[in-house]
Amino acid sequence: NTREHHTDGYNIKNLVVRRGQPFRVLVSLNRDLRAADKLSLRFSIGENPMKNRGSLLSLKPEREDFNGWKISVVKKDGKECLLSVTSSPNAPVGKYNLHVKTATNIYKPENGVIYLLFNPWCEDDVVYMANEAQKKEYVLNDTGYIYVGSAYNIYDRPWNFGQFEEFVLDACMYLLDKSKLSLTERKDPANVSRAMSALVNANDDNGVLLGSWSGNYIGGTSPMDWIGSVTILQKYYKTKKPVRYGQCWVFAGVLNTVMRCLGVPSRCVSTFDSAHDTEENLRVDIYLNEKGEKLNISFDSVWNFHVWNDVWMKRTDLPDGFNGWQAIDSTPQEQSQGRFQCGPCPVKAVREGDVYLPYDSKFVYAEVNADRVYWLVKKVNGKDKYFKIATETQDIGKNISTKAVGQNRREDITWEYKYPEGSKEERMSMQRAYSFIRPSGLVPRSGYASTIQTLGGNTQPLIPKEPVTKTGLSLKITNTEPLHPGNPLEMAITVKISAPGNWTVDLTGSCQLQYYTGKVQANLGTTKETINLEGPSEMQIPLKIAPDAYMKTLSSVEDEVLILVTAIAEVKETKDKLTQETSMRFEYPPITVQMPETAKLYNDFPCAFIFKNKLNVTLENCKLLVEGLGIFKMTTFEQGDIMPGRIMKSEIICTPTRLGEKKIVAKLISNQMKGISTEKAITITE
């Protein structure tokens, strides 16, 4: 049965089948079956199964159909009877007990619990997916990548989803029971995925993962230290207590595992420069001081990246046209209907601006479409006053990414979430969205905004226009040398003017360290210059930060930090103002993996990890984390300190227990370096 149902991967003794598809049951009797004999299979689900509630199904071969379930006799052979059972394609998913009933007797088989899952291979199931390669990726692939970093440099984090590993299916079934969904609600993947988005975070229901962005993870595992979902779900299933700690990519990795495990096609989706817009007014306010440094005073934030999930289904609860991918998010950001849950929100509704559709489409729309407004905070007579310096309308929701089907590369799916910037469709979609979301007038709304200066007051026009400067002023921020920890950070701000004439430009530049959530961790340095440009021309202004300015902060936080450079330029003659910001990540030497390309089932093979510290600093408290599904259980190796120029070599012995292409994933972490990952594939044959 399991091979036909694509469930042969599950590491469990019980039968796992998908709904709407036949499976066979062989019943052995103490004598030949006679015409008058009564024989039925009973499937029951839940605490108190009853026929009238649909939680107890009694299937008799002569009465073929019951509640959409079918049963038939394949063949009778003396004392043996082979039956075929097809569950309803919209049966509730979960654990069913199978009993065999004869006239006088009920037989309870030893492994009588059957796990029934959603079925993307069945045309009548709402999760049906026609494309075979997509099903292989979005349902059956137990490894993948989660894309992180910044829009300036995106990188992949290998992640082991491990939906077939021991206890993972049981953990998902435990979550289904914990969700308190009724049997009717369990039929629909929209309800199930919404419930799972709530249960993967611990916020209001003792769910799987406790989120923390504190930078201090004593008493738990730092979010950077996970390389997959398996350890998290196994630990949760064993203790029934939230596992510490998660951040967005961990929540998305675990939710992806849960949805694939239950049979719903699912993918991790990363959005760069994602708005966390807490008032649904489609605007995020950024406050800068006079040195051009970003201040931590805003209620909204722009995350360098944010990761959520898309799940695939027909939305029977919505008008036509909103089937396909639906966004769900288990990172606890905002409450929805009183719980920390988000989605499913049709991706097509985000693209079309239909933000009234359930669930949480306004929130998801804002994450990829908000405007970024920059305010300068100046002291005037000892009080803070706010001056608006720029509005960015095309900055939020860039490079929306997921792993490509069947390939180890990033696929850009921005087009699924939004029409091209500036296109006619985009304008219409935005008008639609704005008609459901009332953007408030342009006034700053931080907690410090009691001293508001209304900056020449009309509210935002319906279609925000890109600010066009009179001089064609533009700014670009780049790094001129690789950003290696322990070296000076060498960056440059390029100021460009396209209008002819003599122009004087005041430039302010600042460099800070920030978390991916946009929270500033340290100010590293600023520059202020006045330059003269003969237009059209450009000039590069260097910005250099010494290692002493940042190494202490870098070593003391447990999260990965990004380098944030902000520039403000003002043309004196025309009062043109412009701001630009770019986040960059530190660059690290690679880890290499040495192992054979193929190995035989149950035959040991060696695998070595080699790392040379090419940096100018000692890497303290190094840990190597290794996991290979079906090859090697998650293990941490303490490596001590690695001095500059030194080589670390670690060898493990792997025993493959499953056939096919398997991957080993490794990650190296130290005080100065928050996780460089690598992976290598090996083919296991018989």
From TrEMBL:
<dbReference type="InterPro" id="IPR008958">
    <property type="entry name" value="Transglutaminase_C"/>
</dbReference>
<protein>
    <recommendedName>
        <fullName>protein-glutamine gamma-glutamyltransferase</fullName>
        <ecNumber>2.3.2.13</ecNumber>
    </recommendedName>
</protein>
<feature type="binding site">
    <location>
        <position position="371"/>
    </location>
    <ligand>
        <name>Ca(2+)</name>
    </ligand>
</feature>
<dbReference type="Pfam" id="PF00868">
    <property type="entry name" value="Transglut_N"/>
</dbReference>
<dbReference type="InterPro" id="IPR036238">
    <property type="entry name" value="Transglutaminase_C_sf"/>
</dbReference>
<dbReference type="InterPro" id="IPR036985">
    <property type="entry name" value="Transglutaminase-like_sf"/>
</dbReference>
<feature type="binding site">
    <location>
        <position position="421"/>
    </location>
    <ligand>
        <name>Ca(2+)</name>
    </ligand>
</feature>
<dbReference type="InterPro" id="IPR002931">
    <property type="entry name" value="Transglutaminase-like"/>
</dbReference>
<dbReference type="InterPro" id="IPR013808">
    <property type="entry name" value="Transglutaminase_AS"/>
</dbReference>
<keyword id="KW-0479">Metal-binding</keyword>
<keyword id="KW-0012">Acyltransferase</keyword>
<feature type="domain" description="Transglutaminase-like">
    <location>
        <begin position="240"/>
        <end position="332"/>
    </location>
</feature>
<dbReference type="InterPro" id="IPR038765">
    <property type="entry name" value="Papain-like_cys_pep_sf"/>
</dbReference>
<dbReference type="InterPro" id="IPR014756">
    <property type="entry name" value="Ig_E-set"/>
</dbReference>
<dbReference type="GO" id="GO:0046872">
    <property type="term" value="F:metal ion binding"/>
</dbReference>
<dbReference type="InterPro" id="IPR001102">
    <property type="entry name" value="Transglutaminase_N"/>
</dbReference>
<dbReference type="InterPro" id="IPR050779">
    <property type="entry name" value="Transglutaminase"/>
</dbReference>
<dbReference type="Pfam" id="PF01841">
    <property type="entry name" value="Transglut_core"/>
</dbReference>
<dbReference type="GO" id="GO:0003810">
    <property type="term" value="F:protein-glutamine gamma-glutamyltransferase activity"/>
</dbReference>
<feature type="active site">
    <location>
        <position position="306"/>
    </location>
</feature>
<feature type="binding site">
    <location>
        <position position="426"/>
    </location>
    <ligand>
        <name>Ca(2+)</name>
    </ligand>
</feature>
<dbReference type="Pfam" id="PF00927">
    <property type="entry name" value="Transglut_C"/>
</dbReference>
<comment type="similarity">
    <text>Belongs to the transglutaminase superfamily. Transglutaminase family.</text>
</comment>
<feature type="active site">
    <location>
        <position position="329"/>
    </location>
</feature>
<keyword id="KW-0106">Calcium</keyword>
<feature type="binding site">
    <location>
        <position position="369"/>
    </location>
    <ligand>
        <name>Ca(2+)</name>
    </ligand>
</feature>
<dbReference type="InterPro" id="IPR023608">
    <property type="entry name" value="Transglutaminase_animal"/>
</dbReference>
<dbReference type="InterPro" id="IPR013783">
    <property type="entry name" value="Ig-like_fold"/>
</dbReference>
<keyword id="KW-0808">Transferase</keyword>
<feature type="active site">
    <location>
        <position position="248"/>
    </location>
</feature>
